[in-house]
Amino acid sequence: AAEEGFDPEDVEGAIEAAGHGPLPVLAVVGRPNVGKSTLVNRIIGRREAVVEDKPGVTRDRVTYEAEWAGRRFKVVDTGGWEQDVLGIDASVAAQAEYAIEAADAVVFVVDAKVGATDTDEAVVRLLRKAGKPVVLAANKVDGLSGESDAAYLWSLGLGEPHPVSALHGRGTGDMLDAVLEALPEAPQQTFGTAIGGPRRIALIGRPNVGKSSLLNKVAGEERVVVNEMAGTTRDPVDELIELGGVTWKFVDTAGIRKRVHLQQGADYYASLRTAAAVEKAEVAVILIDGSESISVQDQRIVTMAVEAGRAIVLAYNKWDTLDEERRYYLEREIETELGQVAWAPRVNVSAKTGRHMEKLVPAIETALAGWETRVPTGRLNAFLGELVAAHPHPIRGGKQPRILFGTQAGTKPPRFVLFASGFIEAGYRRFIERRLREEFGFDGTPIHISVRVRE
Ligand code: GDP
Ligand code: GDP
User: Fold this and answer.
1) What's a BP term from Gene Ontology annotated to this protein (predicted)?
2) From the CB of 351, is ligand 2 less than 6 Å away?
3) pTM higher than 0.80 for the full model?
4) Which of 49, 240, 392, 393 is the most exposed place for a label (fewest CB within 10 A)?
5) What are the tens digits of pLDDT across the range 203-252?
């Protein structure tokens, strides 16, 4: 039964807040120690010390959701990606490359106390070529006296320097206003889908799992290289490949090819590439080497794709080398290590022999279908009504929180907003997610559920 007393504007507001789809991406770029991580924490409104991470160690998370003046966007912190592994210049160039490829706008952070260095000027040249909107943050302007330092940064030719103190918050509001002006409403990357271009696949996985072998196997000779960003430092390359009678765009395949000249920091570079490819794609085909134990690095890549909200297919490669014993242990590892994506379609392939290549496209299509599923509000509420009646939330403090009403706020991936009469526990949320999946089949897609409590 429909709930009495529901204010439709309430529902609309919640849907608005839950977002309709992919968010535009803001990358924060700059030399080490200029204060990028501090600024990112400031933007996302958190104080957790991301800053403590060991240099050179790639963090699990680089992307955060943020909101300013009622608009939501993603922030990419490049601060943890650098230092020792590559030299300063290479690391900053790699960040800029990421920003150029995957971001919709860039905040370029300069330490106003130090002023513009040669490295800063080199990055400016990269950013200018890319043509993405740039907001210049002159950081470490903790007081009025620092403002004149900031003014020197006009010389970078990026327009007005915004004096900020990431540490104390000074000036960050004005800077964020400028960011919102620079940031498009929707991410550029999704314009391709809107006009019905080929679906975008990121083929990802840790080094040596067989990505380039797989690409070669499925594509054979029929690859069309689409270089959409000619003229940038290192060209990201997309390739059009026909599979199962459909043309697909494999994004960022330059990252799949071997880069022999990049021995040092290769792992670092690979994870940077992975993040960029995932950001550009609709579906991530995650390749895992079935002959080796599932590693933390595999899990990290999976987490990256889940958090980016992409459709996901898991492909276990090198199946030709697995004996019975290994197959047994692999199944156990999948259960324990990859439970978070138990919903993803799975294929067991061999890039070497071509085993089960024909199953790849159906799996991708399944995942994309799940990713785009929309459940009509009527059906959703009929389902929720029965579910809640049969399995009520446990009583807490003498009260029983109830789910009153739900609606799907968006797709790609599916996002739900549930209205409840009280706090809904995590365990019950997971229960609802599980039952939603059983009922509506969101195979191959993460789903987001947010709960609004009505007082
Ligand atoms: P990143 O390497 O660019 O991510 O830089 P971090 O965010 O790790 O900051 C480097 C150092 O600069 C840390 O010690 C911060 O506390 C300091 N810092 C960051 N922002 C400010 C600021 O606005 N004012 C001052 N005085 N110090 C800052
Ligand atoms: P990438 O780094 O993920 O692109 O991995 P590559 O495609 O370069 O493959 C790494 C190594 O694994 C190469 O020696 C490949 O020949 C080998 N390889 C890739 N796929 C398979 C497979 O299905 N079976 C076997 N036996 N070897 C494979």
Assistant:
1) ribosome biogenesis
2) yes
3) no
4) 49
5) 999 888 999 899 988 887 656 666 554 444 445 678 888 888 888 999 87
